[in-house]
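The authors assume throughout that readers already know how a fold can be written as discrete tokens. For illustration, here is how one protein appears when written out as sequence plus structure tokens.
>
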Amino acid sequence: MNKVFLIGRLSKEPELRYTQSGKAVCSISLAVDRRHQGEGQGPSADFIPCIVWGNLGEAVANNLSKGRKISVEGRLQVRSYNAQDGTKRYITEVVGSEVEFLDSRPNGGGGAPAGGNSQNDLGSFGGTPVNDDDIPF
């Protein structure tokens, strides 16, 4: 079984691109904290590349920014390509099938409550309720 579940913060702005056939793909880098290994060692993190396809990728690119806390559920993918210098290069990344926004939008702009699932609970966070038909995913 190939299943990955990560919680972390975006370490850079999401990058949205489109394939030649017009399908959206969003690249993100997730900073995931490591558990402390011993005394004297400060906190450390792994920076994990993730991609999210389609409408979900567009939603991630349009609604998230560097520093936002999210969870990503998906699968690990290893792919290879031949570099210009003729060497074979490998890329390991998470292909996200579910993304959950875990914090509110910055600057008091409201946003999804922790969990990001209930669009109708926005009133307590200062946001405006959103019609389910307007949600892109």
